[in-house]
## 1
Amino acid sequence: MKSVNKISIAKVSDTNEIMKFINDEWKNNHILSLNKDFFLYEYKNKKLLNFVIHKNLNNKIDGILGFLKSSSDKNASVWTTMWKVSKLNGSPMLGIDLLNFLKTKGYKSLMSVGINKDTEEIYKYLGFNIGLLNQYFIINDKMNKYKIAIIKKKIRNKIIITDEKKKFKKLKVVDLKKLNFQKYISRKPYKDFNYFKKRFFNHPIYKYNIYGIFKKSNLLSILVTRVIKHKNSTCLRIVDFYGDESTLNIYSSNLKEIMYKNKHEYIDFFSKGLKKKIILNAGFKVLDVKNKNTVIPNYFEPFIQTNQKIRFFFDKGILKNLRIFKGDGDQDRPSMI
């Protein structure tokens, strides 16, 4: 066998070895090391995989960097996901080499959600921008006991509705075609019909509810939610929001009624880039992660009843065009079977 020592985009034939690498080097019994169908759903790209890999002189993978595309465009924005170098590899620079290789592939922008605090200095060294997502929430003020959240002081919600003519509707995949995605081409990341169809409508494990706001027959925006269950209780998480952002208050008004009807403890979402006035008019409060009297958990697999910070990086572009949500990259992904 000819020995190799190179960085490349992985092929579908590398799937089993990458899955084993994830199990051995990333996390034992991770869903992406056990569920091949889900692995391919996430990363298969025709005959290739959306992974940068390094093979050592024995032709064995000893470094990986996964990535997910925000659209079907050739130069789409991408989120990096699983970035890991084998403990047996002697090169401390290999991880950076993997990332630099991905940068050469012509993608519009590189970003990642959920980065480790310990890696921030690496991203800064590479010239990336670092930040924190904000977490917003609306508490179910008709409940007295909470099993998921910690609420020691009642918080009232006030939503300002400015346009009663716009209609809230649960979407089918065909409805997506009524949104003018090209209108938001300057967004970072830009998302398209194919992204939303695959990411949320066709997800093989999680069930998402996708809603839209219409003005007559025109779809103005899309909002994606997922119900999360724990201890015989539930909460409602917004994982993506795209389009006309002035419609957020119409969503929150309708989601609030869904929350009351289904006895969800709260509605929450993580994001970066939305204007504060839009958030407040929609009735959301900004979570103070240091305040232990109000706890809106982030982690459910396994469940951790604490407030958590979510860090991100993005490589370039105007900050005002940046929109990041909990569903971006691999943040709203099952980690266990």
Note: The chain is about 20% helix and 30% strand.
## 2
Amino acid sequence: MGEFPSETSVLERAQISFTNNVRGIYEFNRNRGNYWEIVGTKGAMMGEHLQLFEGDRRITSEIKYEEAEISGKKRVVGAKVETQPEVMVRGSPEWFQADSYDELALADAWMSLYNAAVDGRPLTYGAENARRDLELLMAIRDSETRGGIRIDLPLRDITEYERLVHKEFAMIYGSDPLDSNLYQLKAKYALPGSLREMMYYGRVIK
């Protein structure tokens, strides 16, 4: 179930429920970027905090980014949570000098693709996970567009949100993206104004 909140700092928010008693909150926040809460049966990830459940108690620990000085500049090299035992994640390619934790994730994706192509290893993310992520986003945007109704997965048909994006695309480029021919697919597209906002924020920001 998604919504377009009244707060100016939050562009969209969604509540997500899974069949295994896991639930989540997603928020696109101007001040803190993409924000997630994932609550399971034994613990939760709450933004930059990890919670472990022990009976009625919730033990909260901060997820801390680790930095190191490389070539005279501070770089992100990993993250850790000071639990017992300690949980730690390190950036895989030591040669990659990341400015943020998001860049470390990007480097990990590229290394996974390289290892799959060169050594035949399985991808750490892969096309099926990408398809599921996009399906989830389409469902959230469809719920927002239709007033916050519940959307069940898997999706069975094209969503109302996608129809609106395709209509905007056709107004700008002259055809629905599903009807594009090979000549049109060779064109270099930009994302002007309203189309860009619909694709990035789910709606046109007024």
Note: The longest strand covers residues 57-70.
## 3
Amino acid sequence: MMTNRNRSGDGLGDGIAATRYFEHKKGTITNLTSWTELSKKQFSDRLIQIAGAFPIVEDQSNEDQKHVSVFVHGFNVSWTDAVTRYDQIKADLFDRRDLGQPILFTWPSNGSAAGYLPDREDARGSAEALAQEFTDLYTYLSGMQRLIVRTQDPAKACRAKVSVIAHSMGNYVVQKALAVAAKRLNSPQLLTLITQLAMIAADVDNDLFQKDKPLDGDGSLMANVCYRIAALYTGLDQVLGASAGLKHFGTRRLGRSGLADRTAVWDNVFDIDVSKVIKDENIHSSVFESPKALTLVEEILRGRDRGQLSVVASV
């Protein structure tokens, strides 16, 4: 777990603090005393150790490569709710389907539907912390790439794909974080930072990725550092309907309406209507609770062809 929440009793609060790092091995996951705090170097070394134990796969088995994946939750989510959702995703999506290692990035989301704008400000503030993690990750990956070229040792090849799963306003955190990281790295084009970005019920503008936007705009920068971006949406999402109704800026929500114009977005960006694979209750979070929808997320992370994904989403 990475977090920029402040410490509060036996858990984490709703205030912003310096980024801290933790590992959970046993005990009640919603009690911070069950987590071991690590330094940033210890945290990085632990992830390198975990990913280093992943098998090397041949090119023809690319879809079987394991992931180190960052999960970013949405707005109005307490720390206990965040780690509970993370634990469920880890069990149902990563452990059960042998996908690799998820990481929770939990940010101080203390809003409500009525307090949408303050929570959006929290999201923007938290993006800086996540941007630093993405920047450091790129530095590590580019260093490893140079090492492989220099040594010509295939055993040193990266054994993990890096992916991101973002939910609701967590997508706004990721949007701002990736844009900041891309600018810090001078819009790198020689190395993919994020292999797969799954934007679930995204509470962001649905014209974010239109190609007529400025090249230094968030959508263009995100498309530049991600290999592929998938937006999962449904018109049944009343939470995003309320989100759109509570403000008078921007456009419709990506997670409710899909892309504004599918014919004019960057070619590594696409959307999928998940209405047929989610449950009827708690629609805003239903992708995480429906086995069919989780299968779709799994296929996205594995890098299945879009045609195959459409078949999964229509079942």
Note: Residues 2-314 form a domain with the Rossmann fold fold (CATH 3.40.50).
